[in-house]
Each structure stands twice: as structure tokens, then as C-alpha cells.
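Why this split exists: single-chain examples teach little about how molecules sit against one another. For that reason, every record in the complexes split bundles all components of an assembly together and asks for one structure covering all of them. Below is a record exactly as it appears in the raw files.
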Amino acid sequence: MIAITVGRTFLNAYNERFEENLSAKEFFDKVYFEYFFNHPKYMQWITNSPFVQMKSGQKPHLLQPEERIEKLANLHQKISGGEKDASIAIGFPAAEEKEFATTSGLVTDIEFQIEEEDLYLSWIGGGLGIGVAGGYSVFFNEPEILIKLYEGWKIYRKYLNDPTLQNLKGNQINTWNGQWLNFAYRKRFREDFDFARLHAQNVFSVNDKVIEVNTINWSELFFNISNKFPAHTFSGYVYSLGQTNKTLGFYPFYFSQARKITDYYKVLFGEQVALNDRQAYESLFGLHIKRACELGSIGLQALEPKYLRKYYGKDSNLKMTKPRVAQKKGESEEDYEVRKSSVEQKDYENLITFRTYKTWLLAMITKNKEESLNYTAEVAKALHEYREGSTKTDRKNLIQSELLAAKNKKPFLDALTTLIKDVHESNLEMFKNLRDKVHLMSAEDFGYFVVLLKFDYAYAERERNL
Amino acid sequence: MYYIVRYSGPFGFIKPWTAVRDSETFSQQFLTPSIVTGIERKLFPELLEDDDGEIKKIVGHRLSYKQISQQQEQIQPRGWNEKGTRNNKSYERPYAILVRGVMLEPVLFLAFQNSNDAKIATKQHICLSRNEDLLYPSDEILEVSKEDFDSDESLFSGFELIFEKNEQSFLVGYNRYKQNEKMFGYIKIVGTPVKNNY
């Protein structure tokens, strides 16, 4: 039912922008129906709605224009007849005239005042949901975003009607909205684009049978919306309508916190690297949308990189050593080059993973205060110096399986105490400092700190082997 | 001065007004005006006389929790379905499963302007928002200024819906205490409301 609100915001913005004065019903007839349903391929598939209910022998893609008008008339009729179930109004409960469905107990018994006009608004809003990976969509009740989505409708319709794109699937409006918004808010967006450019940007997946719109990761979209609205917080409504509905509810989206990540990335690894890695890291950040919603708000914390959690404690470690590839006996020059570049590609991906993790952890640690960004890297360096002071493996083990595997402060400080006894004088001050720092850290910050140190330690190993 | 009572309990679940026939519903993380009104009427039943649906005593709230936990729950339809013909008629209410995202260990602060009201409130439990989700009061009343309640991130972290209409406001439901009038508000967040340590 929130779709009504979104529809209304959009229609007001539309009327203002194009100096029109359309009612919801007029807009539905003149614009929405024309784009969404008055063609062999629909843009949206609403189960059981008049548009998809076929008489015997009818097929949606074979309908004649007058048959489609008839379907529109059916919808009008049902609406004016007072029907308002899920097939007539978007986001409403399904009808239960024949029998109570199992989930009927969740429907409120408050009698809402819902006008006919509202039902048309629900359709308009329904076409403005932004699909993200994980099977959920988001509503932003923001005029500027909604108008941008409307511009995207035209483009999706153009491609659906393009005879050279016969295999392009219809009914993907939400998925399209997500990709379109992401594309339109990119930093280097240019007006003159075509299908090939979108395809190159991974908007579509193409095989011999079907062309589909890919779903966008919420984090990518989040970074690109933050280009446009760098200092804003919008409240987004996360939901899924379909065979069964899902409601995650309202969450604040802190777009300013995406800037923080980008800024840190630049400071840590340089402007150029930040630019080159951009596409790769934007999709690496971000928990599953459902996990993100569990955190209560969408911002820095929800941007936690995927798979980072497995590095907490003893379980896993990043392998950062630089690969050495040598030509094997009997291997052709060509094979060698292929193998080498694949190893290098892998190494590059590894590096990006490291950079992503490091950026996020630092952003979390320094959330409330200014800290030196290089601190953990310096400690990691000192740890290596300590380790190299012995040829046996005892120091290595102490660092790797006790100090850096510590899940809370106690074992970390214990290991540090052992370590400090043998530390070279030049590093003594640093380790004493570290002890004091850790002592004062909150449990939460310590969690981030120790993994960050672990990654920096692995990275320092790579540097020293050069 | 604000007089603040802290309530806590194992679970809480607030159904978003937009949830209909869902297979999965997360808890809303803020209180709407009608929920606050409801809690108030529970604490001060005398308000039910000549009730005009206005909020009279609670001047602010703050809700935080440990995490959202997804729990499966068995449900049935709200009425009986008739099956079969005249000779072998039967009535049934089939079972199904619903996933609820429930708040674990919610903590709710309620702010009162009157110390006497706070005193009465510390002697009672409340619910959030199902009658099995009991929240119990702590016996201490915190006395702080409005400014401190709004800014102390470690003590009063949480979500609060501010019942005002501005640019950030959104529709949060219909108030059944006031002829289903539309309710608006925006989310204010103080500190880190979800304590997610791992």
C-alpha cells in the first residue's frame, strides 16, 4: 500500500516537471498503460491482474490492440466496482472471497479510506520499485529519483520494441529500474549510449536463447546514488511482491557514508588506483540486503565486504605473497603467457580484496575519531622485524596463531606480553604503545583492529619478499 | 527535565503497516504515534476516560536491540473454510509457516515530563507489540535533560520516530485512535542502535 504514496509523489513531480495536470487515472491511461502494457511485450507482470487474464485462445504476446484496450477497460471496471485486491491494486492483500488463505490473519481489520484514484496511484508506484540482488526491491519516495526512473521506462520500452532484440525478456521493470538508476547516476554518464554500451556495463546478460536484465548489487547502486546525493539520508522501503510477499520495512540509507569509503580508498591507495578499482570494489562491499536490513540502517556497517567474517579468529587468513611464475619445461611461449596472465589476474583480485577489507575496517575503527591511517601497517612491519629476529618458528607461531588469531583482548594482550620480552629496543616503544591502545579499545573496535592487523601483516610479508 | 524509564525483555515484534499476507516480515524498529498512545493507555488506564487519542505523557522514546532473528511461526487463517458437498462437509483452518524477523533483547526508553508519571511507569510491564513480548521496567528512573537524552550516544542509543512532518518524513500508518488519520514521522538515530558484536 506504500506504493500509493510513491505513486503520488511521482505524479506530483511529473505534473510539475512537464506542466501537466493529470489525474492518476489519466496518467495511467495515457502514459502508464502505453508504456507498460500496450505492446506485445509487457514491462510488468502482475499475477491475476486483468492484463494477464486471458480468454481461451488468447496469448499475451499475440493480443490485438483492441484486445489490449479491452483488458484496460476490465481494470477500470473492477476498480470502479470497488474491487481492491492484489490483482487490482499493487501491494494490497490478495482476495479471499472463496476462502480464507493461510496468511489472511496478517491482514489488518482497519477500514482504510481508499479512493479509486489511490488504486491507480498504486500501479504507478508499483512501476517505480528498484530491484536489487537477493530478490528484494526498494522504494525511494524522492521526486528526483522517481523522475529519473520514469526516464528509464522509455528506454526499456524502446529496447523491448526493438526488432533486433527479439530475445529480450519483458516484465522485468524492477530489475531494469535498478540497473538504469545505477547507470544514469554513474560518474561518467553520457547521454549518447546504446544497447552495446549497456551490455558492456554488464546491464544485460546475453546468450543465444534469451537476453535478460541482470540484477544490480545494492552496494553498487548505493555508491552511485551517493554520487548524486553525497550528503543525503533517504529512507528506503525494502520489500518484495510476488507469489508471496515479503516486508523488510523502512530503513535509513546514509549516502554520505559511501563517500567515506571512497575517500579512504583514495587516501590509502592513491587517486588512480581508486579509480581503476572502482567497479571491482563497489560490488565487493555490502552484505546481503537482508543482512544489511538486520543492522537497522544502510550505511558504513552494512557495507561490510562479503566474506570478511571468515577471517575473524583462527579460521582463515589472506594469502598475499606475490606469485612467481616461471616457464615450465616443454611449455609453449603462448601457454606460458596465458597461465601467467591468469595468475596475475588472480593476484590483482586478491589485492583488491585486501584493499576493500582494509578500507572498510579502517573506516569502522576511525568512525568516531581521527586515527593514523598507517598505524596498523607500521605495527605489522614491526611484527615482521620481530619475527625475523629468530630462525626458529616459535615467533612466527606466536604471532600467527596466538596474537593475530585472538578473538578478544585478553589472549591478544597475553601474547603481546610474551612478545615484548624479546623485542628489539628500537621497537619496544611501539609495542608498549600498542598494549596501551588495545587496553583502551572497545570490544567492537578491537574486533576490527585485530583483523586489520592480520591483513596488514600478510601484506607486509608480500612487500618484504619483493 | 526528562524522567526516563528503561524497559527490556527477550523479544519484540512490531508489524509494519504495509505488511499484508506476507511469507516473511521484519519487525519495524520504531514506535508509531498509535503504539505510543497504546502503551500510555496501558500504563495510565485513567486516560481511557474521554479518550481523544492524543499522546499526553510520553514525550519521547528510544528503541534498540541486539539483532534481528528470523523465526518460523505456525499460522492459520482468520476464519473457517468450508469444504466438501452437502453429505460430507467439513470445516478446516489449514496451517502455514510465516517467517518473522523478531528483535532480540529490545531495550526501550520512555521519556516522561513528570516524575510522578515515571514512578507509576516503573511499576508496570509493557508489550512490544504482541502480548507475549513482555518488557519489564528497571526500578531506577534516569533524570536527564532533553539535550542529553537526544545526544548521549552510549546511554540512549536507539531509533526514535519523531512525529513530525518534514522533508524526511514518511507515512507510517493509520491511527486507529483518531479515525484512521494518516501518521507521519521521520527516523532519528542516536549512536549505534543495533549492537552487533562478533
